[in-house]
Amino acid sequence: MTNPLLQEWDTPFGLPPFNKIADGDFAPAFDAAMAQDLQEVEALVANPEAPDFANTIEGLMRTGAALDKVASVFFNISGSDSNETREALMREFSPKLSAHSSAIYSNTALFERIQAVWEARDTLDLNDEQSRVLMLLHRNFVRAGAALDGAEADRMTEVKNRLAVLGTSFTQNLLADERDWVMEVSEADLDGLPDFVIGAMRAAGEERGLGPVVTLSRSVIVPFLQFSPKRALRERAYQAWGARGANGGATDNRDIANETLALREERAKLLGYDDFSGFKLETEMAGTPDKVRELLMAVWGPAKTQADADAQVLETMLKADGIDGPLEAWDWRYYAEKRRKAEHDLDEAEVKPYFQLEKMIEASFDCATRLFDLEFAPLDVPLYHEDARAWEVTRNGAPVAVFIGDYFARGSKRSGAWCSAIRSQRKFPDVQIPIVVNVCNFAKGDPALLSYDDARTLFHEFGHALHQMLSDVTYDMISGTSVARDFVELPSQLYEHWLEVPEVLEKFATHAETGDPMPKALLDKVLGAANFDMGFQTVEYVASALVDLAFHDGPAPADVMQKQAEVLENIGMPRAISMRHATPHFAHVFSGDGYSSGYYSYMWSEVMDADAFAAFEEVGDPFDADMAAKLEKHILSAGGSQDAEALYLAFRGRMPGVDALLKGRGLAA
Predict the structure, then answer these.
(1) Which of 167, 233, 424, 594 falls 20 to 30 Å from 483 in CA-CA distance?
(2) Positive or negative, the Cα torsion across 211, 215, 220, 224?
(3) 334-349: pLDDT as tens digits
(4) Cα 495 from chain centroid (whole Å)
(5) How far apart (Å, rounded) are the C-alpha atoms in residues 289 and 267?
(6) Among the options 348, 461, 540, 632, which is catalytic?
(7) pTM here?
(8) Do residues 506 and 454 lie in contact, with contact meaning Cβ atoms separated by under 8 Å?
(9) 1 pLDDT exceeds 70?
């Protein structure tokens, strides 16, 4: 066939030939690849030989290669560079792909072969990795409903197909609300804003053929809320930001969230669980909803105490400006920024020129070189968007990975930041180096400047990328980030700590105009204020995690907004702080079920990342070679080859408590 998605890719490193792929290629490629996949599975099932690991488990891993290629290209670009055609393809193929997956997982003859291998596992002389893969594959089939039959099996397929449709609709509605809302401002409305904020607003306006605008991109709206002295404009922008997915009409996500939760509960009950949270958490480190709630509430108390005290200070500042009435959510960032400048003598407008995007990319690479001997060389290859860039990653001259960075916000990109793999590392059925993508939403500029939080985001996502790039396993189903959801954030959050290492900032935090390194006094202030406003940050996060848990622990609520309000009232949510992700735009939870009943995972991992970086501090060197080798061996290269707890114990020798997290956030008593 002439469809480039279905041909062998004779390209550098086997990268997709993005310059030859047209949107019209995807539908026929998906149809052909799904048909081929089913044929390959049927051939496996028809094998007259008795089932064993090679002909059944490894045999199944040989299937679906064409579909993997098509899907990896499509889903990477549909999130980072969407258009009407790609959105229509998402709506068309999400249920088709779900039905295709259900056809494989409900293939009775296939499951019988897997079950036969599972039952004979003690006689098969499997190595540890093979045993792990067999257990995971068997468990995946059971949890997908392979052991169901008749009406229950049919209903499971219907539920999963409908959930796929709902997740796609939720994502596209949110993207539409974020893309379509802009607030045009006058030149007078720019008074009081730092140059970098004005530049970001002008760039966002130019993209739309307008003058300066506020958009719902975090890289624009957050600094606007921090610095704009015009309270009415802050309120208007904040209300729009909070209303994403809840504006009525075709893009409203509230009914989608209600239906999603009801279907998740039904799915769990079909599999014999009391509720979705019990089903979902069974395979995570936490294990049960009670363990999750115990962690979140241990943090909630100290965080709320700090946030309440901070709110009193900020409200005093508000009243000093002659404003009657209470502190509101659109006031918090503005007065917190003024307070930070007053108490820490720290002005983001002064700091930001030292955080150039290019220098922070260099810094993230340099830390990986010092820790893991990785080298990064730019690649001149066709990619899916002109903003995306690629590097070849090597160690001692040998290829390790291809890394793609796509850093700038644009209307066609969904919000947030993420890491994905166009191709995962594996050694079976052939040796394959990974192709890893980091996607961010930073404001464009010349040069592009980051906030300190932006720089942390860049390091965070690169930590995920290292987990993919340094993977060293045989089978791609346990490769890289294929680990428990509440373990997957450990490498990413751990890597953030290297941004805080003074020698890293001394080398790479250089002024955009003068090239001078950040003065030591300013560097000390940046690091000293790292936990500033941590009560606010922790409260907005933990509130979201508790609402997510409440949605899935017990019967599905009839009205998600009422349930959200009940949870927030019960925990005493401070008036002037909102959830980080209110339900109608809670994409982590409703765009798919990756983080459903699992948004707590960032904090569960943070308990470990604080303790893991302490291992480097204890030996007195953040770049200690022996400790870096240990980190790579037991965590970064190991993928999902063992239970997450076993991997962490192998690295650290013990499991940490919540004290390290509270200390790291400056919330310890």
Answers:
(1) 167
(2) positive
(3) 999 999 999 999 888 8
(4) 15
(5) 18
(6) 461
(7) 0.95
(8) no
(9) no
